[in-house]
C-alpha cells in the first residue's frame, strides 16, 4: 500500500474522481408539512417519540389539479432514481420519475461492485462471503445480510449494463485495485477491489446526465419541480403519491409500485439531532446535498414503514475551520441551523499526520478510518483537532499509502504538484497555517501558555516515537509515522464533514419497505440512502464505494423486478 513516488493507476484514478467534487447541488423546498403533535413510531416491540416526524399532511381532494397514472413511480432523480428510470426505459416498463429539483441529483461518480468482469482484469477475485461478514462486523450485526447479498450478487451486472452508455458518452471505465489487507489504525482491515469509475469524473456529462439523455432518447422525461407531499396508502398498501407542483397539487397513481429514491436526511438538522446525536460533537462542516432533507423517509414512515434503530452517518475527517471554531451547529439570524465550516473537504485532513487537541495533546491513533478518528475527537475540547506536519510532507504522503478518496492528495503529490499549490487549489487559503518555526506556528493556531508548552512537548515526544519506529502511545503503523523537524511547518484545525446518512427504512432483499412487524408494505420500495438494513453506526470506509454501488444496484433491481426481468429474491411472504 506504500507509495513509490510514481503516478500509479490508483493515483491517476483518484485525481480524476475528486476533481471538482466540491459542488453541492441545492434544491427548492416545496410545501413542507408543519410538525404538530408527535405520534409514536414503532421500532420492533418498543416505541420511540419522534418529534421530527410531525403529522402526515392532509390533502383536500378539491385542491388536486392534475392526475396521472403509471406502472412505476420513481420519487427522486438521483443515483438510485436515474438508474431505475433508465432500466425501466430499457425494459419497456411504463414509469414516471418525479424530482423536486430542476435537474438530476448529484452524481456520485465512483461505484462499488464485486467481481465484475472489469475488476477481474486487474485484481484477484474478492471473497464475497468474507466481504459480507466484514460489512456485518462494521455494523455489529445490525444489518440484514440478505439485503447486502442483493448488492453482492447484482452489483457486477449493474456495472456491465451501464458501462456501454457511459463509454459512448466519452467516459472511460477505470477500476481501483486494492490489496486484501490494509494496515491502518493499528490493525488490519479487510479491503476489496470494489471501486469502478468512469473518467473523466465530475465533468459534465456525468452518469445521471447520461442516463437522463438515454431516457429522453426513448421518449421519456423527468418530471421536475414535483415536491413530494405524501404517499397515498391504505392499510399496508401504497398506491401512489401526491406532489406539489408549480401548477398545484398532482396525484400520480402507480399500478405496480412506488420507489422512494429520495436520499438521506443530512440536510435536516432536526432529524440529525434526534437520530445522530454524536454528529454535533464531531462535525464542523457539511458535504451533503440540500435535497437530502428526509422528506422521503418521513413519507415512508407515515405509510407504515419503520426506520433502522441505529443511525449511520457518513463522516469524513476534512472539515477545515479557523482556530477557535467548535464542532456542532450554529444558528443564523433566521433561526436556521448550519455547520460553520466553509471548506468541507480539505483532503489533506485524511492524511495520518500528528493530530492534537486544544490542549496540545495527542489523543488517538491518527491512522484510524475517517469517522473513527472524528468520533474520538468528539470527546476532546470543542470536538476539533489540529493537524501538524513539516516540510517533508510530500515524501511522507507518498509513503503513507492511504486509500479511497484520501489518496486524492497522494495523486497530486505523485504528479509533482507543489504542496502549497495543492493546498491552495483544495481550499486551504486562510485555514492552513504555515510558519518557519514551531513556536510561530503554535501562536498562529491559537495555542497559548500551558497549551503551547504542551504542544512543544507533544511534538518532541512524537519525534522520539518516529525515531524509534514504534508508536508506544497508540500503535500507529511505522510507515505512517513522520517527524516534525524540517521547516516550513504547517497546521490546520479540523472537524468532521457530514456527507450523508445511510440509515433509513427497513427493507427486504427485494427493496420492499417493511413494517415494524416485518410485513411488506405492498407497492412501496426504497433504494439508496432512504433505505436501511445495509449499514449501522458508520460507513465502512475501507470498502471503497460500496454505498453508491448498493444505491445504484437497488434502484436497478426494483425496475427489473417490476418489469418481470428477474425473479423475486424473497421466495415467500414473511
What would the keywords be for this entry?
574 residues; alpha+beta; eight-stranded mixed β-sheet; six-stranded mixed β-sheet; 15 helices; globular
| Poorly predicted runs | 1-48
What distance separates the N and C termini?
Answer: 45 Å
Number of strands: 23
Structural class: alpha+beta
Please give the radius of gyration in angstroms: 24 Å
For the report, how would you describe the main beta sheet? 8 strands, mixed
- Average pLDDT rating: 91
What percent strand?
Answer: 15-25%
Instruction: Identify the quaternary structure here.
Output: single chain
Distinct helical segment count: 15
Q: Which word captures the global form?
A: globular
Helix content: 25-40%
Description:
It is a single chain. The protein is an alpha+beta fold and 574 residues long. The chain is built from 15 helices and 23 strands. The strands form six sheets. Strands 3, 4, 10, 11, 12, 13, 22 and 23 form an eight-stranded mixed beta sheet that branches. Helix 1 (9-18) crosses helix 11 (407-414), helix 2 (79-91) runs parallel beside helix 15 and helix 3 (128-138) packs across helix 4. The longest helix has 24 residues, at 145-168.
